[in-house]
Structure formats: C-alpha cells, structure tokens
Amino acid sequence: MAKSGSKMMLAAVAGLAAGIGVGMLIAPAKGSKTRKRLKKRIMGIADMMQDDLSEKVNAFKSAFASNEKEELSALEHLEDDKEEK
C-alpha cells in the first residue's frame, strides 16, 4: 500500500510540474510577471503545508505526552499496590 501511495504522489508531482511548464509556455503575461505570480502561489502553498505540518506535529506531541502521563500513572498505581502488600 505504501508503494502505491508513493507512486501516486510521484505521479501527482510530475503532473503538476508538467502542467506548470505548459502553462508557462502558453501564458499570455510576460515571463517576469508570470514568474512573480508563480513564486507567490508556491510560497503560499508552502506556508499552508508548513502550518498543516506544524499542527500535526503538535497534535502528535500532545497525544504522546498524554499517553505517557497515563502510562506513568498506571505504573505508579502498580508500585503503590506492591508496597501495600
């Protein structure tokens, strides 16, 4: 499954690159203006991806931290039970 997902991602990136290339060739605006627009769009997409990745990392960290606290609490209860016996 991972291989088919990576193949799909590679195909999507290749298609995107081909579409950008064709779009630049047939674009009605000057090259410099088109490059500025393209750079602006790419930077916007990169910012969105970075924000999304940051949110996912933070969610993972908080889930890991809460899971770790639960495990520590369970271990403390086990130790308390052993001490009582």
Explain how this protein is built:
The longest helix is centred in the last third of the chain and has 54 residues. This protein has one domain. The mean pLDDT is 79. The chain is mostly helical. The protein is elongated and about 80 Å long.
Instruction: Tell me the major beta sheet.
Output: none
Stretches where pLDDT falls below 50 for ≥5 residues? none
Strand runs, count: 0
- Share in helix: over 70%
State the secondary-structure class.
mainly alpha
Name the helix and strand elements from N-terminus to C-terminus, one letter apiece.
Answer: HH
Helix count from the secondary structure assignment: 2
Radius of gyration: 25 Å
N-to-C CA distance: 50 Å
Domain tally: 1
Q: What's the helix and strand layout?
A:
Layout (H helix, E strand, L loop, with lengths): L1 H24 L5 H54 L1
Give a short summary of the structure.
With 85 residues, this protein is mainly α. The protein has two helices and no strands.
What structural keywords apply?
85 residues, mainly alpha, 0% strand, elongated
